[in-house]
Each structure stands twice: as structure tokens, then as C-alpha cells.
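User: My collaborator sent over this chain with a note saying "see what the structure looks like." That's all I know about it. Can you take a look?
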Amino acid sequence: MAGSFTPTWMVEAIYHLTPVELEAHGIKAILTDLDNTLIAWNNPDGTEQLHQWLQLMDQAGIPVIIVSNNSDDRVERVAKPLDLLFVGRALKPLTKGLKMAIKKLDLTTNEVVMVGDQLLTDVWAANNMGMRSILVQPLIETDQWNTKINRFLEKGVKKKMLKKNPDLKWRKNLDK
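Assistant: Without extra context I'll predict from the sequence alone. Here is the result:
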């Protein structure tokens, strides 16, 4: 069971990912969760760090697409000013939203990576889809009420997953 929730990598923050690193792993696009992955859930405008990182990805020709379980309106509020494609109501851990995102990008599962802060939605969805995933630490320690439930359930799953994968540790990047 823990295998269903095992990410390919564990990176401290999405902002640590670089175009060179992604390209070295054959990754041409990033599918990303929204809240506490790309932005703090309570800061829809994002930070300067977010804007710089998105500019870096854009300059490298690596599209970033938001795949979120939030409503279209909520996701669009963030995506539109950032000029990002998005899929709202993704229904993660089901694969519907990931399939829609990959179709928008016209890529294969081998060419994308799913980045998120939750094992029970983001990583599980990626594993269900047969794609690589990156678990990141939440940007802030607080969550919306509905995410608090997932965090509680995730604690035991995460503990078992890490016990079965002792080499899986938090890193600054994909290779170190």
C-alpha cells in the first residue's frame, strides 16, 4: 500500500527545481498542485520567488500547468494573472485532471512530472497515472479546513512510506 504513495523525489520546495535538472531527467513540463505547493493557500498573488521561478521556467520553455482540486474560479484567480494553464476540479487522486493537463500540453506521462505537497492526492494521482512525482514540503504550516483532514490521515501513510524507502529524504534538488 505504501508504494501507491511513494513519490519519485522529495524536494523541499517547487522553487528549487531548475530547467537544467528537469531536462536532465527528460521532463518537459510541470503539473503542479496549487495550495501550499505553488502558492501559500492564503496568498493567491504568490511571492516574488514564485514570479522569478515561473519566469525561469518560461525562459527555458518548460510549461507549468496547475492541476488542482479547487474550483475553476479559485484556480483561475491565481492562474490568469500568472498566465498559466490550469485544470480545476481535478478530482485527485483520480487521474481525470492529470489526463486533461497532459492533453493540453500534448505530451506523454514520461515527459511530465506532478509536483504537490500531499501524498493522498498529488503523489497518489501521479502514481495512478504512471508518472513521476515530486513531494514538496507545504509552503506554510497552516491549511484550509478540508486539507487538515488529509494531513491527519497522511501522517501514518507517510511514516510507513518513509520506513519502506529509507533512501527517500528531503533534498534541495532532484539529484542531491
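A starting point for your reply to your collaborator: Strands lie at 9-11, 29-32, 64-67, 85-87, 112-116, 132-136.
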